[in-house]
């Protein structure tokens, strides 16, 4: 069976939540998924500072687990360290944002992203960096912090519904992406999509499915695009 590691590049999730997410992940794919977090790094990633700060932890986790898994998913919708991770290991590494945005761009001409209150500018930059700026209808904010997301909260669901409806009705979105993995792990995508009448994508399912598909097909990133990091220089990174 294909083995996929979902790597959370921080330390803000307790053991119960990590177990809950691992259970969900294994229900969504035929691969065997292990969810794990780093020993250090930020509690959550809600700024460019935390986005950059967590990359060292992510790379350390990748190096520790590289031989044990067939592919990896970065467990943050900001895709922190995606290019660096691909330089660092030979096996496929998937960023949930990039995978989901590109899926949305294939399913619709215009898509919107729902993000938490502190990250709308970074989401716009991310989408333009992925070459999808012309298809972006809007970035809308769900007034919620990452650490405050309660997966059983109907209030949070309704916040997503309201902003998704505004994205469709006011901004012309033809599909909607929840731009936070804590929101995605609430697993209310089908329910929201039914009410919206347009796709409301699931970054958990899409990123895990992409990693498993690439691994099963023997695909990984190009070494022209992502040159392998020098082993001679690696020792100094973790001194």
UniProtKB/TrEMBL annotation:
One Gene Ontology molecular-function label: amino-acid racemase activity
InterPro entries recorded: Asp/Glu/hydantoin_racemase, Hydantoin_racemase-like, Iso_Racemase_Enz_sf
Residue ranges that the Swiss-Prot or TrEMBL entry lists as coiled coil: none
Family stated for the protein in its record: Belongs to the HyuE racemase family.
PANTHER family: PROTEIN DCG1
Protein name listed in UniProt: Hydantoin racemase
Native source organism of the sequence: Halolamina pelagica
């Amino acid at each position: 069976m294909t083995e996929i590691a979902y790597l959370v590049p921080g330390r803000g999730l307790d053991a119960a939540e990590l177990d809950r997410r691992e259970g969900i992940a294994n229900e969504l794919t035929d691969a065997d998924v292990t969810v794990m977090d780093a020993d250090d790094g930020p509690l959550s990633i809600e700024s460019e500072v935390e986005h950059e700060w967590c990359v060292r932890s992510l790379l350390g986790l990748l190096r520790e687990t590289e031989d044990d898994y067939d592919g990896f998913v970065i467990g943050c919708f900001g895709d922190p360290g995606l290019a660096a991770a691909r330089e660092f290991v030979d096996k496929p590494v998937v960023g949930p944002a990039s995978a989901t945005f590109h899926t949305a761009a294939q399913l619709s001409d215009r898509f919107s992203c729902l993000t938490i209150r502190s990250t709308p500018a970074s989401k716009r930059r991310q989408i333009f960096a992925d070459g999808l700026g012309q298809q972006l209808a809007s970035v809308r904010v769900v007034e919620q912090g990452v650490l405050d997301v309660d997966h059983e909260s109907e209030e949070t669901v309704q916040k997503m519904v309201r902003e998704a409806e505004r994205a469709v009705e006011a901004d012309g979105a033809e599909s909607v992406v929840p731009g936070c993995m804590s929101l995605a792990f609430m697993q209310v995508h089908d329910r929201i999509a039914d009410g919206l009448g347009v796709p409301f994508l699931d970054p958990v399912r899409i990123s895990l499915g992409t990693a498993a598909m690439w691994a099963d097909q023997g695909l990984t990133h190009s070494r022209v695009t992502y040159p392998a990091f020098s082993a001679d220089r690696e020792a100094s990174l973790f001194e």
